[in-house]
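Journal club prep, shared notes

We agreed each person brings one worked example of a sequence with its structure written out as tokens. Mine is Hsp20/alpha crystallin family protein. I'm keeping it raw so we can talk through how to read the token line rather than staring at a rendered picture. Sequence first:
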Amino acid sequence: MALWPTRMYPHYMDTCFPDVDRMERRMMHDFDRMERAIMPYWRDADHSILHVANQTQEVVNDDKKFAVSLDVSQFKPEELKVHIDGRDLTIEGRQEQKTDHGYIERSFVRKWALPEEVDLDAVHTQLNDVGHLSIEAPKTGQHTNRRNLPIMAAPKKK
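Then the structure, token by token:
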């Protein structure tokens, strides 16, 4: 196996540490055996699952809107959920596949806290043909729980 060192120390140390040398050979043998055991499954695996965690996303939070765009092309529309709980926007995707050799499950969850000035009733979603999910929430331009607080002078210490 090319990536693992064949010796941890020079040959002249063999006489000093015979037990360490035996342990090193045993460890290298175990690594080789483990690699041979895993490789057939790794070659046959569906490597598209590696892209689930690396989804491209874009978030816009300007004066007029809060918007999220997310690549969910690995998922079918029925495998996606978008919901708002309070002011938390959550996007979830869950996919299950049964194959002759096993079972594959993919999932993701993304959450954002919506700004106070977002109109929760006007939030809308759109999924295009290439699997790009867009969620847009217009802003009302005012905070719902905003008020000005007067600044009071602190009492002087004596």
